[in-house]
Batch of 2 targets.
Target 1
Amino acid sequence: MKKHALGMAAGLVALGQAASAEVKVGMIVTLSGPPAALGQQAVDGFQLALKDLGGTLGGEPAELIIEDDELKPDVALSAANSLVDGEDVDFVVGTIFSNMLQAVFRPVTESETFLISPNAGPSTFAGRNCSPYFFVTSYQNNQNAEVMGAYAQEAGFTNVFMIAPNYQAGRDNMEGFRMHYEGEIADEIYVPLDHQDFSAEIARIATSDADAVFAFTPGGLGVRFVRQFNDAGLSDRMQFMSVFTTDETTLPAQQDAAEGFIAAGNWAPDMATERSMAFVEAFEAEYGYVPGGYAMQAYDAALLIDSAVAAVGGDLSDKEALGAALEAAEFASLRGDFSFNANHYPVQDFYQLSVAQREDGAWVTSMGDQVFDNYADSFAGECRM
Amino acid sequence: MSTTLILIQILNGLQLGVILFLIAAGLTLVFGVMGFINLAHGVQYMLGAYLAYWLHGLTGSFIAAFLLALPSALILGLILEFLIFRHLYARDHLSQVLATFGVILFLNQAVKVLFGPAALSVPVPEFLDWSFTLVDGLLYPAYRVALIVAGLLVALGLWYVITRTRVGMLIRAGATNPDMVSALGVNVRQLFLVVFGFGAMLAGLAGVLAAPVFSVEPGMGDDLLIVAFVVIIIGGAGSIRGAFVAALLVGLVDTLGRTLVTDGLRLLMDASAANQIGPAIASMLIYVLMALVLFWRPEGLFAAKVIR
């Protein structure tokens, strides 16, 4: 466990007027290993929000402590314990990955500390195991794949080849895609999470009669697959649809290999609202790269905390009132419409996104048609708080 | 499953084998000749890829990046040898594993600090940025062919150096009996330096060549390192010929396994169960192969010597 936080926290405290911080936020994200780019986006998104809010949350000076879970459940757990017991934080913001959330969920929520996830949204805590202390500002994990499936159905694809890494999230996303897609499945392939050479899989795709591919190949896996797919000339033959495969963390490496590829999401950096555009501009000026959904959702997590702390007038001891204030979600989300369902997972709009080159040369996802309006996940009905 | 697909998969398997050989060749020399377990071989491969990325950014030319990356990888390897590895040769394998594992952690973190955590890519050089049709609708990139040719050239070059030159003779002798070689007045330390530098350069070469096909990211060598060890254990530590044969074998078994196991299981059980079990069995196959080889020939297929 590393403390990246000391210097930054000190700086933020200095921004506020009072010498002692009153709203203490602990952040647990993945900042080492290949997926560190996702955690960095979340950290930068949250810090930009704090900067925009003048170093305060709900008018009170804020202190931020950042912990790296190293993508190891035991590290995440001890980070959670030290934040909750040692630092006595008021909010924990985390995590990026669902298996890390499994590790921190109980220690944080059972100590009656509010846990706000800027990305991980597993089905585990969306249904019967939902908690009044747990909120999600991203989505339920299956939703992007569900949206992609609905798009495939609408767009008239009839024979889709599916590929994902061989672990739970891979299978969940394949299931999610099938929810609204009713056509044929040409085949489905599961590869190791660290798969390097996709030649064998690409040969199978090429010799199938698929008219589209649906992929869930996050991070470096997606960089390799997308480039090798394009090199094999398959981009011209079939539509590439994916989730968590062509996003702002992988596009700098995929570039034109991913041109015209389709994804699904709740936001893209070119969303044409004033607030979203201002956010993207400020983010790029501050950190020098294009923010993805991870950054946007972390920014929203800060706004959510800000709105709730303001609503209770800075009195963080009344947990019930604070919970109700969070539930109300009285903040202006960068993505527009946003409200919490009964299980504290968002109800929001989903869009088809496509990869395109911006005028300044950067490769980004770009907003396409809206696929769902106020879309809720399918587990909320089982939640009894 | 058509015959065409199987033929394509055999080609893909051989191609993966050649890539694995590029990585395993340096490792088998260092492990076999020096008896030194260098877990950091994987990060030296990663350094090669990052050097290619960095130098490509500076020069804008893949050829220039390629030509500059090789000596740079060699120099970085020698620096590591001088600072760390040289003090480990006389130690037991556990110390070597611990220290070289530390090097992995350090260098993975170092490239993250320097280049950021996100995956990067190196474009395919323009003169190789074309492809030909393998079967209807499936293109085979020219760069992949270049990769295979490069792998074969390295294999040929190594074969020549090891069997036809004086240095090669010393390396073979050193692999068999380093004490005797030393007693005959050969500076074994110098010989080890040459072997190690050569191994580092081979790892760097593999990284440079792999950069346009795979993604350049921190930790990219860690997964391949394990497969590389499987290759040299099957082939026999220290044997270039063994590494070559074993790399092709592992490439074929892995690629064909991925295709055939799941399809085969689908004949026996329903599709979703086959999808569940197939990939798991397929990824075990190379380790099963290694276990079998270890059972029948504990010293590997073409052992240069029994590992001390």
Note: Chain B touches chain A through 47 residues (CB under 8 Å).
Target 2
Amino acid sequence: MAETLKMTTPLISAEAITKSYFKGEHKIPVLQGAGLKAHRGEFISVIGQSGSGKSTLLHVMGLLDSPDVGEVLLDGNRIDNLNQKARDQLRNHVFGFIFQFYHLLPELSLLENVMTPLMIRHSILGYWKHRKEIRDSAMQIIQQVGLEHRIKHRPSELSGGEMQRGAIARALVGRPEILLADEPTGNLDASTGSGIMDLLKSLNENQQLTIVMVTHDESIAAQAHRTVRLAHGRIQTVAREDAA
Amino acid sequence: MYKLLLCVRYLRTKYIALASIISVMLGVATMIVVNSVMAGFTTEMRDRLHNFLSDIVIESRSMSGVEDANRQMATVTEVAGQYIQAMTPTIEIPGMVTFTDPYSGESYTSPVQIQGIDPEGKSKVGPLQDYLDSYNPIVEDGVVQREALRSREEPISWELTEQAREHRELVKHREALFLRDLTTDIQTATPESKSAAPDFDAEQPETSTATSDEQQAKKTTPGIIEDDFMTDPQVAANEPEVRTGPLSARIFLGEGLVSFQAQNPETGKLQKIMMVEPGDDVILSTVTAGRPPEPVRISATVVDSFRSGMNEYDTSIVLMNINELQKSRGMQIDNSITSIHIKLKNYDDAPKAIAALQRAFPPGQVTIRTWEEKQSLLLSAVEVETAILNVLLFLIITVAGFGILAIFYMIVVEKTRDIGILKSLGASSNGVMSIFLSYGLGLGIVGSTAGVVIGLLFVRYINQIEDGLSWLTGRKVFDEKIYYFFEIPTSVSPFMVAAVAMGAISIAVLASILPARRAARLHPVRALRFE
């Protein structure tokens, strides 16, 4: 069974990613030939020290950044070299992002925040035509994360856990295939954090949502199917494999 | 759709941006008010100047004029008759007017422009009745102080009004009696020495001093002010034949020449005191049309007062009956005149009319000009002033634009992380840029609209506002004695309003371009990490 899983094309694959940052004159290498594969329905955690480049890897995989060397493949097709418009489309349709600091837009209500990816997807006319479906999709996902009683609130009126759940709802409203999560519990206390993890696990199980999660917390990382460690710019160990 | 939503939300929630809206608003309002007032002034001034000057004036270069007025006018009709509605011949020459101030007995002489006219002809090329005192009521602060003495139906002539004739009778009688009294005193002073030199040291009565018996014999004659001279029976018995008929030379006298403003001791208000009234006589001095000219003195009777509202005319114009002026100057032999005033059917024909006329008259003999050319100095000054004001005010709005640029830049910096989020959700760079461009547009529209509303309200109530300001500061802000008008004239042009609003909106949009581009170019990851 495990072999069968490994034989299918991974949904997303980052190969030999090298990326450096420039601080003035100094070149700081962050990723040096890092690679990661995730199959459909997998929940993978990437663990590493602060500054190890795990966020960078996530960003490169989600086309928020470009690698200096290396490739990113979606269903076997290269996506890191596409034009700006295609990248924007992929980010809207295929990827969902959540971050450590929620990043909900402060001027919009929770509902509007969740609807944002769909508003980006449609023109003004398109939005007007599909506004009922858009609202329904948003309400559905909001219910899934348990925030239906907070839809009119502004982010400033929500708790940390609620905001993160709102961000998750926003990330998923467009029905992406892959959720990229950058330290989703980093700013939350233990119990709220575990609530978020429960949500992620249920989304992964019930909807076959592929999740790549970055964290520095070993206990959080352990809740994924599979953990990899990123150190010195490389994926170093495969921590454990989920029993088939 | 997200762009629209965010743009609207930013407009509603970012109060600091209101600061930049206010500057746009004030700039727009100011431009509208200033342009409306300048346009109002210009229109009024042009109207007044034009009313007094005819569309086209043909003037002889020499003060001696050109001969045979009828032939000249026939020539004009021949070459340009199709454009002409009316014309009238005039004689215009500089001169002086000498008159006596009845209060002080002093004699004043002022330089004037004497215009010999035919009143009926003159009223066909311009509004003359509007300027003559007898045809208009005297209104002060909205209250009618004196009704019009003549109705508008009555054609303009050189005849005195009833009031003028009465005034003249009174004055002439007084003068005659004063003179007669003077000579009687000289005769009766020393009866033994009739041939002796008159005693000039004896006191001469300067005013009508009454003795006690004279007081008892007072009688009042209706229509004439009680005057002790008149009622003294001794005096009445010796009343000489007084000629009170007006002189053959008749004039309309510019009001400003013979009046001054004095503060009424009781009310504290300024009122106009006239030193010369219709019915009085004055002396005009000018030169004949001879070569070289000789000085000539003309005694003339004032028939009416001339008041155009334009200071430079009211203090310099004397209109005279053209036949008498001709005679005095020796121009009647050749029937010479110095100018022809022409009113066109359509002022747009002026260039064509002037071209036709210039061909008909020997070059160098006459100048043919429109009223605008004659007043070009004044008119172009107003135009230049308007243009400069517009440039200055537009610069002010541009400065407001820089304010918008700065505030927008700050907003983009503040929103850096949000922009990163939007990009991570799949928003395009152009989409992000258009959020801020439409934000600029929105601000511009809001500011412009508010500015237009405020500006138009200000213009509508400008006189009330001026009253309020005058009351507040204790000084008259708009003094009708300095400016030509009693109320601030305004003229709102919809085109001007639209142009100002569009200009302001464009500046707002232009100002938002730089910050919008910065927003578009933000790298998603760096933006997300922005502290």
Note: The helical segments of chain A are 2-7, 54-61, 84-93, 110-121, 124-144, 160-172, 190-207, 218-221.
